[in-house]
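Each record in this resource describes a single protein on a pair of labelled lines. An example record follows, reproduced without changes.
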Amino acid sequence: MYSKYIPLMLLIFLLTPQVQSCKDIIACGDATEGDYNLLLKIRDPSRPDFQVLCIIPENYNYTYHHPWTGKSIKYVARHKYIGVTSINDTPPAIVKSGMLLTDVGLAFGDADTNSGWINPSKYAWDDFDWLRYAAENSNNIQEAIYYLTVDAVDNLHATGVSENLFLLGPDKGYVIEADAYRYHIKELINGVDVLSNYPRELWDTQWFKTNLISSSFDAEVYTTVRQNSIVHLGSLLGVEISYIGKESIVVREYPPIFGFIKHRVNAFKPVIINTNESRTVGDFRVTLLDIENSEADIHITTAVKAWQDAMFKYVNEKYGNITIKDMMNWSRIYDLDGLRPMCEKRFKYEGAAIYKIPNTNYKLLSGGWFSPNHACSSIYVPFHIVDTTIFKPYTNGEAANLSLTLYNIYGNNLTAILSKVEEVLLYENDRIEKLALRYNESQLLTNFDINAQKQAWITEEIYDN
């Protein structure tokens, strides 16, 4: 019935660049070491520029358009928030934070999923509008769920993007897969999740994209193949075994057409895989298990499922004891055996934030740690929702520029040194938080955060000079 549409579907898939821009890890309840929940977001910004911290006060007002009519509407931020934002997306411009923390103990993050189920209007909201709308209006986590889903999706069909949305609160977290017309909500009271730029529950809704790769996100096949065999995961695309040797095979994505398209060139390159080795082959991950009598035993799954499994291995090894330091370490993974690394050189303006929401006293102690550029060359610096100011280099792009300079000079070779500075800051932060709680003194946190930011800045300047 649909065979006549296959060439068109394939063409759309091949001509559309696949989004690869953000990575998120969430840990809640008994997964963490203490009475708190954690969220890491690494931002490879779709609005590229230096990443900064931006404080938006309660009652901040601005004018923005309706997502369909374009009519100007006055909005008021009912809650203070601190966002991680590209430098040109701060006031007086419309604030477009890629991740943010609010004064009611909520943290938000996201990762694009590239669905075609969007608001087609030129006035459609982007993901930053989506997050901002929920963050500035929500008094608690249930209201945030409402604004992200019922209001933005069911009522407004507001967005011109599809997203994996991450929501962290004092007693639970949520992972929401959504486009402009549907959503799936996953609650995390105790548990972890890892996700990037792909759908899972909504995999089969992307007819021209993910659904052409495999029949489902977690599809996999163990099979024995001969030379020139083609293996599919229940869909149109697959892999071709073009050569079988004594200890290796040569594999490429199938069908090998449109390889001249810039963003698809690597997908169709032949890949040599040795016995007991796994390699990424375009949209797939192939493992060579054994070769016997010119036949190869292989395992094939999607590349995104393999990436998720690899990251889950890191995270689950620390289950029950996950800390901010673990999140820092994971954000610095630059070699994941050929899978997409967490710290990616190809994104010039990559930044990251780790949010910590305590189960109690979250209006005082909710905070985060900010890496203004690649985590491999940045010292994470603390901030708290009660902060009244931030050290200027972290708000004007200078800190991000310095970290980028260090990355260009040292690559990943500063990590051990920067990590030692962070260990001191983490220890001092815990001590200061206890004092601030004892005396209900928010200014103490602001003073500490500014001094910690200065210390990190000076340390990085030393290595620049």
